[in-house]
Task: structure prediction
Amino acid sequence: MSPPSDIRAVVIVGLGKPEVKTVPLPKLRDNYILVRTTAVGLNPTDWKHVDGARVGEAVIGTRVGCDYAGIVEEVGKAVTKPFKKGDLQIVVPENLSDSQAASLGVGITTVRPSSSGEQQRIFIYGGSTATGILGIQYAVASGYRVATTCSPHNFEYLKSLGADAVFAYRSPTVLDDIKAWADGCDSLTLAWDCVASKETAKLCAAVLSRTKEGHYRSLLPVPEEVVRSVNEQVDAGFTFALGLLLADGRVKPADTEVNRGGKGLEGVLVGLRELKEGRVSGRKLVYTL
Ligand SMILES: NC(=O)c1ccc[n+]([C@@H]2O[C@H](COP(=O)([O-])OP(=O)(O)OC[C@H]3O[C@@H](n4cnc5c(N)ncnc54)[C@H](OP(=O)(O)O)[C@@H]3O)[C@@H](O)[C@H]2O)c1
Result:
C-alpha cells in the first residue's frame, strides 16, 4: 500500500494556538526516511514552540512535535544507514514498548553522560522532570552519589531510581538541607539543573564548594553571571548529550501515561495544555495514533 497524499498533524495556527489539521504528506527527500508514526511523546519544548518562545510568529504554520516511534514506510535513495520498509524506528531494545520508546527522544539526547566517574557526588535539580529521571539513573550507573529535588510525592520514586538524598524544593530549608548533605563530602563540585531558571541556578551555585572549582550545567541557557554572583568558583554551561544505558535495563525510561485526555492528535492538544499548566508530574505523556 502506498503512503497517503494527506496526513493529520498538530499545526501552529497562531501564537499559543495548536490545531489538528489535514496537511500534505512531506515529499521524501533523498537523505530522509518516511515513518508512519504509531506513538508520540510530549515535551515542554512543544508547548513553548506553540507559544513562540524562541522565534515568535515565525512558528505560525509549522507542525509541532519531536518524539515518536513508528514504522519505516520509505527510504530515501541517499540514505546510507540500513533502514528498510517495515523496520521499527526508533531502534529500541526489545524490553521497551512503542509508548516507552516514544518517550525517549529529546530526553535521551539531552542527558549528558559523565566522563570518567572521578566525581563522587552530583546534585541534580528537578529530579522528577522527565530528563531528571533519566539523568539520575545515568549518574548512579556511572558511579555517582546523587542528591536531587522534587515534590514529596515523588521522593520514593526517585529513591527507587538510586538517588541518595531527595529534597523538597518548596521547603523553606531546602538550601540548608542540601548544603548539609554536600558538606558531608566538602567536594560537591557538580550540579545539573533540569529546571534551569535564575532561581534554580542560584540555588545550585549556592550548594557547590566555595574552595574548589565547580561546574553548573543546565537544560536551558542561564547566564554565567547569575551563577557567578552566588559562587565565583562555579562556571556555567548548557548541555546536550548523547546516549544512555537502556539496553541492559539499568536505565529505565520515565513512567509513561498513555492517552491522557484522549487518543491521537486530539489527545496531544490536551497533553500540551497539561504540560504548560504544570500538571504533569514524574512521568511522560505519550499518545498512540
Ligand atoms: N535543551 C534541551 O535540549 C532540552 C531538552 C529537554 C528539556 N529541556 C527543558 O528542560 C526542562 C525540563 O524538561 P522535562 O521534559 O525534563 O520536564 P517535565 O518532565 O515536563 O517536568 C515536569 C516536572 O518538573 C518539576 N518542576 C516543575 N517546576 C519546578 C520547579 N520550579 N522546581 C523543581 N521542579 C519543578 C515537577 O516536579 P514535582 O512534580 O516533583 O514537583 C514535574 O515533575 C524544560 O524547561 C524543557 O524545556 C531542554
Observations:
- Confidence is low (pLDDT under 50) at residues 113-119, 241-250.
- The pocket of NAP is lined by residues 43-45, 48, 106, 110, 126, 128-131, 149-151, 154, 169, 194-195, 219-220, 240, 275, 280-282 (CB under 6 Å).
- The chain has two domains: 6-104+253-288, 111-238.
- Residues 111-238 form a domain with the Rossmann fold fold (CATH 3.40.50.720).
